[in-house]
Amino acid sequence: MTKPKVTFFWFRRDLRLEDNTGLFHALQSDFPVIPLFIFDDEILDNLPKNDARVSFIYDSLEKINTELNTLGSSILIKKGNTKNVWQSLIGEFDIQNVFFNKDYEPFAIKRDLAITKLLKENNIESFSYKDHVIFEEKEITKADGLPYTVYTPYKNKWLEKYHFLGSAPEYDSKPYFSNFSKIEFTFPELTAIGFERSTIKVQPHNLTQIADYKETRDFPALDSTSYLSPHLRFGTVSIRKLVNWANRKNQTFLSELIWREFFIQILFSFPNCVNHNFKPAYDGIQWRNDDEDFKRWCSGTTGYPMVDAGMRQLNETGYMHNRVRMVVASFLCKHLLINWQWGEAYFAEKLLDFELASNVGNWQWAAGTGCDAAPYFRVFNPEIQQKKFDEKGIYIRKWIPEFDLGYNEPMIDHAFARDRAIATYKAGIVK
């Protein structure tokens, strides 16, 4: 029996049908489009069975499948080693083309090169598209073609290029939805993938909450953030729509979106920064890396309320306010002299919005070892940060219910820790 010729669209971190670049182009191919998502064992094997991000991915895919069902179509869900899955699909279908959107993380680049090679060996064309960012790879560079390593000139060049375009193009796939394959695939239970539902939930995003973003974004008790970051991470929203909206409505928020692209560009250009200091001059720092101190930081029992509230919020919800992230990261690296990689790994495990580029970029910023980082002698005082940004203790009391009953003494004196950090950095930095 002759197998029908088909096109595949491979969902990854772009879990939406609207304004999806690769999907838009796939649906204009000459063959019915089978939507595919692969739960990759190489990623899943490192996660707890109740990982909240897997639950969110699963729910997002279920929403896509429900919408596809109204069109007489469905999404194909697979689990396993990605290369093995594709090898199996090549045998099962007469695949003509495969479309997908680019991912700029080192693991993803290596994976995609391997899959593209496999497809080519089987005479299957593959097409990849920019979808996760406005400007990718080497689109924003200095005059000499080298990547920017300082944010402000990068931002200025980014804005110049964006304003020259007028806006980011949006891709309406709806006129081509009839081109989805009419094959009915069974949507699996979450348990069939080897996971159970997490009690931690990704919050719906809400742009109305950031009307006064510039004035309120540093105050964690106000809850005046958009909750967009997990949705950006997994692509349930379009970065183009967001940027176009922010350009019209909220320039401060737009700057934050540009920071995201800056770090993605840094990771793409300098992939070694995942496991090494961006600034090699900092390689001589003698970190204390005390296990007991790290455990107290992780559990939110340092005796510094702003630090502890942030860590408890993270542990209970998978979220942490951005101002508080800076405080807890500075505390780990500067007060406790624990390598930023320990904190980066813990955030990677807990954050709902974990994105490698931003996580590594922000941790190295806090440690002083990264590009355009805070200077090593800048050591946040958690008590002053609390007085400035949570003066009435509303945020702290939300996450530390025992706060008014007599809270723990700080595990380390700030002045002592600051002096020790500066001395350690000075001694370790190669001139």
Automatic annotation (TrEMBL):
Protein name: Deoxyribodipyrimidine photo-lyase
EC number assigned by the record: 4.1.99.3
Keywords, comma-separated and alphabetical: Chromophore, FAD, Flavoprotein, Lyase
InterPro entries: Crypto/Photolyase_FAD-like_sf, Crypto/Photolyase_N_sf, Cryptochr/Photolyase_FAD-bd, Cryptochrome/DNA_photolyase_1, DNA_photolyase_1_CS_C, DNA_photolyase_N, Rossmann-like_a/b/a_fold
Domain Photolyase/cryptochrome alpha/beta per the UniProt entry, residue ranges: 5-134
Family, similarity comment: Belongs to the DNA photolyase family.
Cofactor: FAD; (6R)-5,10-methylene-5,6,7,8-tetrahydrofolate
One example GO MF annotation: deoxyribodipyrimidine photo-lyase activity
UniProt keyword Transport present: no
Species name: Flavobacterium calami
Class of this enzyme: lyase
